[in-house]
């Protein structure tokens, strides 16, 4: 299925007028040492460094829709802190484990409602016995973001296992949960309304696809994307270059359009991807930076990077691509040529440790 051309045109017009003329892009990235960095990519510098309560480093960051609060998963994936980006003070906090007998974690899965009033977190729990752990049912916990510094869920509901990504639709009516398949959940009741097949796809002569993605990178275009890989079961893996395929999965969080299209015979590993505001291109990263034409489903260009990067994001005008998520530097690249324009070093060389790059306007 090809991505909708009408959708591409409408999205381009919408993005063009989506942000205030006075607003500018900033990058949010958390690091080991429980630091949060606010980076001004236009000025090529770190604007501010925040100390985040907790321990164990920050891997997941979810900004509020107005760009004023950053919700950070901390305490070894055992809680969330909401940090006011103006004052630098925490305004929200929750500990997932509510008793000494039950330990609760989240594998980096959380998102916020479009109005910023509710935070959704996928949780997995175990009951601690004398000599064993009892695995408990997984759930999604919903928090009122105005609950302050000892927030408790306002509701919970059962959820599929293996969820490593939550993404809210732009109308707030559907919570998407990526597991072995992509589930569509009613955010009020927890009812599963439908699903998009991933592991359960019925593509002929194809193995179940493989996806590794912990990086929500969809705020600039409202399109979730991720690379996927699979093997052709009708090809000889030792002799045929078409035996392994790479594609891009996209989910439009505004329209619900879902597409899985191949773009090359597998020749490079890609950990994460981001769709350009023009909806015509995607960029993927790991040891190389790749540019993919989403209309023609083909690789446009690929360059080598100085080291591995796990996360990639893009400027709101689509002109610059940012790579980060490992070590302590953010690379700035031209979206047109992929040339490296700048390198922004994080003071103190705090390791991003697989953290994402989130974009806000302020």
Order of helices and strands: HEEEEEEEEEEEEEEEEEEEEEEEEEEEEE
According to CATH, the homologous superfamily is YVTN repeat-like/Quinoprotein amine dehydrogenase
Q: Estimate the helix proportion, in percent.
A: under 10%
Strand residue content: 35-45%
Radius of gyration (CA) equals 20 Å
Total individual domains? 1
Average pLDDT rating: 92
Low-confidence stretches: 12-19
CATH topology-level name: Methylamine Dehydrogenase, Chain H
H/I helix tally: 1
> How does the major sheet shape up?
6 strands, antiparallel
Give the class-level CATH name.
Answer: Mainly Beta
Shape: globular
Please give a handful of descriptors for the protein shown.
362 residues; mainly beta; 6-stranded antiparallel β-sheet; 4-stranded antiparallel β-sheet; 45% strand; globular
